Amino acid sequence: MDDAVAKAFKNEGLEDFELIIAHTDMVTESMDMAPGMSYRQLAKKAVVANLSDLASKGARPLGLLFAWGLPSGFKVEYVIELARGLNEGALQYGTYILGGDLGEAKELTLAGFAMGLSRRDGLMRRSSAKPGQILALTGLMGWTALGFKILFEGLEAPRKLKDKALKSLYEPIARVREGQALAKLGGSRIGCMDISDGLAISLHQLASSSMVGAVLTNIPMDENLKAFALDQGLDPLSLCLYEGGEEYELLISLPEEVFEEARKSLSSLGCILHEIGYVTAERRIILKAEGREEEIKPLGWEHLREKPKIR
Question: Sheet of 285-289: strands edge to edge?
Fold first, then answer.
């Protein structure tokens, strides 16, 4: 994990918090800027990438730092666009860009460092999942997978589906408020991580950290998207498990007695909490949905490794 947890000083205004949560994440133009994306959107995505991991801990954002690497001859108008995107992204989540650094690089690079605050008993961890707990997601799957197929495979889709799919890639959302709401329900009992690298591999990472397994009984997907996928000869479950990524939704493991309260709390924030299965003691990840039963493979995005052929 990129997160580091340390004791916070009892400075004025921080008395209610016991921990500092820190996270670093980097975006580059060649790897993270999808065709058609603006520099403003790329900058906002860099903010989301950094804050999403704070969200998975239930932390309150304190501020962000960004080190910029700019290629020689990079246009001033693009620099202004990037700065506006970073500022807008930070303000959207109630935090600020505190500073950073500027240097020359072979390609545009934005290396972020996010800091947040948490109470010790509200800290959600990847290692907190327990057998018998409910597994849940904060959003629908499949939109980014459709976006990738439109951009990189030339798939034609109806306008409404295309717009929503591309928006999921160009303007992702960090579930910061949702993470804080979950933490208030007893974060130390809740296992949580974001699924920016894809649902399948995130399930394996959560299970590995907690030394558990899981059974998936449902993968939430928009019915219109599902119908379109079937019409195109695509496997909807494969789209959601293996061919997405960058959703920045939260994958959550929580006690059954907390689930309804969590659902109501997130609903008040405009977020639907979808039950997708349950945690098991047997260390396998199994899909049991729509008449299928199969083992879920640990496929997804991993830097510096050969990429799975899913796009």
Answer: 191-194, 250-254, 134-137, 274-280, 213-216, 285-289, 292-295
- Indicate if 85 and 131 belong to the same structural domain: no
Residues ≥6 apart with Cβ < 8 Å to 173: 48, 248
pLDDT tens-digit readout, 102-134: 999 999 999 999 999 998 888 999 999 999 999
- The DSSP call for residue 225 is H
| Greatest C-alpha distance within the chain | 59
Distance between CA atoms of 30 and 86, rounded to whole angstroms? 19
| Tens digit of each residue's pLDDT (9 = 90 or more) over 27-72 | 999 999 999 999 999 999 999 999 999 999 999 999 999 999 999 9
Burial group, residue 159, by CB count within 10 angstroms (0-12, 13-18, 19+)? exposed
Calculate the CA 14 to chain-centre distance: 27
pTM, entire model: 0.91
Predicted confidence (pLDDT) per residue in 9-34, tens digit = 454 455 566 788 999 999 999 999 99
Q: 184: domain CATH number?
A: 3.90.650.10
CATH number at residue 10: 3.30.1330.10
Distance CA(102)–CA(108), nearest Å, equals: 11
